[in-house]
Known about the structure:
Blueprint: E1 2-7, E2 10-13, E3 18-26, E4 33-39, E5 46-52, E6 59-60, E7 68-73, E8 78-83, E9 92-99, E10 113-114, E11 118-123
Parallel strand pairs: 2-11
Antiparallel strand pairs: 1-3, 3-8, 4-5, 4-9, 5-6, 7-8, 9-10, 9-11
Amino acid sequence: QVQLVESGGGLVQAGGSLRLSCAASGRTDSTYTMGWFRQAPGKEREFVARFTWSGGRTYYADSVKGRFTISRDYAKNTMYLQMSSLKPEDTAVYYCAADPSSSYGSSLALYKYWGQGTQVTVSS
Length: 124
């Protein structure tokens, strides 16, 4: 069982930066895939970025590549999403999630554990 808690969301102007955190408790095996997803109003939840808890196999959605960076701190058992050059279209609730199946995929269906989400609003 894994518990995930996101934090760090807020309101930022276009072009600004935010860092989201995802604190994990319980079992977080190095083979787990950890991901960030987002859901904008009226839209389906979509993949943003993922990596294995060991730090490998990093992958980003094209829409955020070069602007967002996923990372982790083993000592704090925490994952981060550093977001830069933010755009109004990045406005969404951001969720972290864990996939224990070692599938290394981006499909929402693979992710068994989810946080409660944190709101990011980018003003133009």
